[in-house]
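Archive maintenance. Older records in this collection stored only the sequence; we are now back-filling the structure field for every entry so that each record is complete. The fields below show one back-filled record exactly as it appears after the update. Entries are processed alphabetically, and ABC transporter permease is next in the queue.

ARCHIVE ENTRY
Title: ABC transporter permease
Organism field: Acrocarpospora macrocephala
Length field: 260
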Amino acid sequence: MGGLFLLAFVGPVVGDWSYKDKDFLAFLQGPSGAHWWGTTQTGGDVFALTLRGMQKSLLIGLLVAVVSTAVAAVVGAFAGYYLGWTGRVLGWVTDLLLVLPAFLIVAVLSPALGPGAWPALVVLLAAFMWMVTSKVVRGMTISIKEREYVLAARFMGVPGYKIIFRHVIPNMASLLIVDATLNVSAAILTETSLSYFGFGVQPPDVSLGGLIADGARTALYAPWTFWFAAGLLVLMILAVNLIGDALRDAFDPTSNGGRR
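Back-filled structure field:
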């Protein structure tokens, strides 16, 4: 994963072309010394464009994972700690968001954000990715709040919200770390899918999904326009999932990975 980060963020510094540049003397040319990964139909440098798409996918994936996991931790912990009306309302909100067609809603709203509004896309994606984890956190909170150190804090008069942030959520750190890691790949795939259909990152910015969609039209006779973006997407997802599996095995020795 570290190598992919270096490629995405250091590679453009090493290359001779920017993702905004056009070489009007090299339309749809194969890999060469001038263009390491070839060029597109409009003369864009595939190397620079692909790395720009990687940057966006990695940034969006990481930010969505952090935001959605944080929301899941807070909502789930409050819903589990306060089992009265607070917990019920939070539970209803969670159930409502679970049944909404998230992909369609994001697809409808994201084009209206316009170019350069990818941070708003992060908010949209994160808004629909926290619910399942929130339910898991709620169940764990119900168990944790009956433990001695939490009961002692309550008897000492510590407010509930402080107990949640000081004792409940920190005791779920292993679950939340693994969940955030796995959410990175889910966010990258969702963003790439949206961009593939034209609903994600908007031009003139670049996304791997948009590059794959454009490259699919010329993949048979100009495979470099498709396979570099598609191959790096597969490598990113595989690397993130392997990290998530490794963290899960490290935090939970009784998992399948720990028994092997």
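Update note: The chain is about 70% helix and 0% strand. The radius of gyration is 22 Å.
Entry marked complete.
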